[in-house]
Amino acid sequence: MNIALEKREKLQALINEAINQAVAGGDLSLAEVPDFTLEAPKDPNHGDFATNIALVAAKAARKPPRDVAAALVKYIPVGGFIEKVEIAGPGFINFFLSHEWLADILRSIEARREDYGSSDYGQGEKVLLEFVSANPVGPLNVVNARAAAVGDTLARLMRACGYTVGTEFYVNDAGNQADVFANSLVARCHQQVDPEYPFPEEGYPGEYVTDLAKRLLQEKPDFLDWPREEQLAFCKRWGTDQMVEWQAADLRTYGVEFDVWFRERDLHAAGELEKVIEYFREKGYLYEEEGALWFRSTDFGDDKDRVLIKSDGAYTYVTADIAYHWDKLKRGYTKLIDILGPDHHGYIGRMKAAIQALGYGADTLEVLILQYVALLRDGQQVKMSKRAGEFITMQDLLDEVGTDAARYFFLMRSPESHLDFDLNLAVEQSSENPVYYVQYAHARICSILRQAEDMGVVVPSASEADLSLLTSDFEINLIKKLGELPEEIILATTQREPHRIARYALDLASIFHSFYTHCHVLGEDAPLRDARLVLVKCVQIVLKRSLSLLGISAPEQM
After folding, report:
1. DSSP 8-state code for residue 383
2. Under DSSP, is residue 221 helix (H, G, I), strand (E, B) or coil?
3. pTM of the full structure
4. How far apart are CA 408 and CA 426, in angstroms?
């Protein structure tokens, strides 16, 4: 049960009932109820919830907002979970709830524990999240690491909201980059016996290609005697397979595992690209021009038509992308979410056009664009260049700062915001480091609970403790913050903003540290001690839950 949302729904119902009674009693004249907000004010002096109903209804009611508010307040009963109702400012109605609703929050947390904040909001809708999908031509980099953190966290959040979520990595092992990689690997193999063997101008010069070449020659000693076409075909398959294994292993250390690694080459082998062409041809969506076959994507809102088969008879990558998304839809997913890099803005229009041409709504596909990452060390940007063969891999980053810090720092900012990743700060063990600060709050609570155990004090259940004793601002603010998590999970999910949970965890840790400074938990007053132990135990549950949603550990000692 989501206590905060439950109380919001009850208040919403009371406001609607008050409107009906005010109209029936002649206090107001309203033909229809306008949309209004009911939110928790930023200033706690303005109550636990506030509504703007009087302001938005004033014009239709032909009365000043404060008069409308007075007419409504007359019919809102005080008592039960409502302690007080006030009219504030130009006509806001502020609701002050009784202490009992705060106690309900703690009881709910205790009852649901690691499931606290989960809901059936998504009602089981089948969603497929595709993210990272890096070309299988090299190790993952820091941009891929950001995509992995965002995608994996969004999947965790959506599952917490009751969606049926699949995660997928699309392996582009049939495109031009795979051909370039195969050429690079073949050249490195030959250079093991002939250092002067030419290396492709556009090839991948990283040392990892040389390492792969040495391994290949150990497994296939006669490789250099094969016909060149056989060498290239083998390297394209074997080499990309090796890179996929490498990428998957790095992601596992990062706490990310995909349900499916989907191979583009399987689409080609199954004739799925030909099926797309045949379907579009039957629908009349194709035309020929300058020897190429074009898709009339502008008929579906794209900014220009797209080539599906080039004049040389080769398929474009657009055709494979369409076939891949059609495959997703044929598997029963009703919502497709792709998380892509900042150079993919042009991808959105053509794929939404294709989705519509396939007979689905444009909003079936949602594309999230991640912005660039800049690594900073000692205030200076760290240079990264994949083509030069000198770049910081995801594993390099994890070796330096650790999985927890990496994930938290990638999740601190909105996905569409450029991210400056401070390597020095990420390893600092101080309150300046946000992930350390949050984890330390959890470890501090574990220490308190160990001290209580050493004293022979048993933490009571929420139903056993006298929670009415939790009356200080530090305690009340902490409980209210605990009550926000369920709604934060829904907002982070629906708005595709996983950074909300990172910010929530940091805010909760800050409020807890303030509480700890001002409130002696293991004091001599046993009833108050017990109530505060219930509170800190609930904070521990919610901190661990929040960190788990981010894919970050909750250490018991630091």
Report:
1. P
2. coil
3. 0.90
4. 9
Please report, as a single letter, which amino acid is at residue 50.
A
Q: What is the mean pLDDT of the chain?
A: 93
Listed in sequence order, the DSSP H helices in 428-521 are 434-454, 473-483, 485-494, 499-518
Residue in the block written with tokens 């008929």: 299
Domain ranges of the chain: 3-97, 430-549
pLDDT above 70 covers a percentage of the chain that reads 98
CATH code, 430-549: 1.10.730.10
Strands, DSSP E only, in 343-443?
365-369, 373-377, 380-381, 419-422
Tokens of 79: 């008592």
From 199, 275, 256, select the one nearest 411 (Cα to Cα): 256
**CA 69 centroid distance within chain:** 39
Q: Which of these, 405, 486, 513, 494, lies nearest to 142 by C-alpha position?
A: 405
**Tens digit of pLDDT for each residue in 522-556?**
988 999 999 999 999 999 999 999 999 999 999 99
Q: Is the dihedral of CA 151, 152, 155, 161 positive or negative?
A: negative
HEC string of 280-305? HHHHCCEEEECCEEEECHHHHCCCCC
CATH of 3-97 among 3.40.50.2000, 3.40.50.1100, 3.40.720.10, 3.30.1360.70? 3.30.1360.70
Tokens read off for 46: 């303005």
**What digits encode the pLDDT tens for the residues 345-403?**
888 999 999 999 999 999 999 999 999 899 999 999 987 654 445 578 999 999 999 99
3-class SS at 331?
coil
Task: Give the other-Cβ count within 10 Å of 380's Cβ.
Answer: 8
- What is the SS3 assignment for 385-396? ECCCCECCEHHH
Count the Cβ atoms, other than its own, within 10 Å of residue 168: 23
329 and 356 Cβ atoms separated by less than 8 Å: no
pLDDT on residue 385? 55
Rounded to 5 degrees, what are φ and ψ at 130?
A: -110, 125
Predicted local distance difference test score (pLDDT) of residue 457: 95
Helix (H, G, I), strand (E, B) or coil at 164: strand
Residue that is written with structure tokens 């579009």 in the block: 280
In sequence order, the 6+-apart residues with CB closer than 8 A to the CB of 463 are 107
For residues 249 and 14, give the distance between their C-alpha atoms in angstroms, rounded to a whole number.
54
Task: Compute the distance between CA of residue 342 and CA of residue 361 in angstroms, rounded to an integer.
Answer: 24
440: tokens are 């330390």
Q: How confident is the model at residue 497 (pLDDT cuts 50, 70, 90)?
A: very high
Centre a 10 Å sphere on the Cβ of residue 284 and count the other Cβ atoms it contains: 9
What residue has token string 């049939």? 174
Q: Reply yes or no on whether the pLDDT at 5 is more than 80.
A: no
Cα 522 from Cα 519, distance rounded (Å): 9
